[in-house]
Amino acid sequence: MEFSPLTTTNGSFGNATVIFPCVTHGNVGQLAADLLIFNLKLKSIGVLYHPDVLPICGADPFSETCQGSPASSLEIYANEDVSLVVAQQRGEVIKGCQRKFAREVTSWLKTSMFKNVVLLASLPSTVGENDSQIGGTKWRMIQTPNLVTESYPKAGVDGESNIIISEHKYRNNRVPIPALEFEQIPEDLKNRRIPPWTFVYECIKQSLTARFLVALCSEGDNSVDADRMASRALEMVDDVGAFRTADIVVPTNEMRWVTPPSWKRVYGSVMKRSVFA
Q: CA nearest 116: which of 12, 240, 22?
């Protein structure tokens, strides 16, 4: 993993919070990263190169005129004082290389000395604790490295696990985001070859303190899920004091983040009715 800065950034981010999307179910993390980058007007400060990420090149996804800088497989964006860093992964990881990729990304996150690490992920709604959770989107948290790598403790006599993953509370209305139920966490993360479990295991193995914001959702048009994830992720950043949001209007449940120009063609161009005549 090699970081190639486009600015004077030296690769050390000791005062920054980083938000990194895991390419998972519904691509919610990547969509949320798009919304954060576009609405907070973050600028590209460099690219990450990994030999197992397929190379891509395309028009600037955040430009109405497509006259900006070309987009690449794995880019790093930041605000002016580099207190908030958002990564965006656009290229797929080569089959069979997910664990290696997660290992080296985690190593880069650790050696870059980020003040706070937030990973965005999503899982199928069917992993909910019971059938009643299926339908709609539920939010869960995973925090490392306080998980056990080999096997997870069973529920105690009182019905609760003796390991507690700390909750994060949403600043505006203080709604807690509960920890992902232990029953839904694989007993042996070592054998997991797909995100976000590859990243969870590596964060545990490398003792990286990180928080995973997880959406339990259905796959399809996940723009609404991404909208909510962007809001919650920004609240997490503000909660730790790493990014000043005094001049930013955080969307409420009735508001929507402005979608970037690249989303206009997500389902292709509009077809004329005359072609069916």
A: 240
Report how far residue 54's alpha carbon sits from residue 51's, in angstroms, rounded to the nearest whole number.
8
Q: How far is CA 168 from CA 46, 102, 124, in A?
A: 30, 24, 21
Taking CA atoms, 185 is separated from 25, 149, 168, 172, 180, in Å, by: 16, 11, 19, 29, 8
Nearest partner of 19 among 235, 259, 175, judged by Cα = 235
The pTM for the full model equals 0.84
DSSP letter for 189, please: G
* SS3 category, 142: strand
76-131 tens-digit pLDDT: 999 988 999 999 999 999 999 999 999 999 999 999 999 999 999 999 988 765 66
CB contact at 8 A, 62 and 261: yes
- Per the listing, tokens 């919304």 go with 35
Answer whether the bond into residue 145 is a cis peptide, omega within 30°.
Answer: yes
d(CA 45, CA 261): 21
Q: Where are the beta strands (DSSP E) in 6-137?
A: 17-21, 43-49, 74-78, 84-89, 116-124
Q: What are phi and psi of 146, to 5 degrees?
A: -90, 25
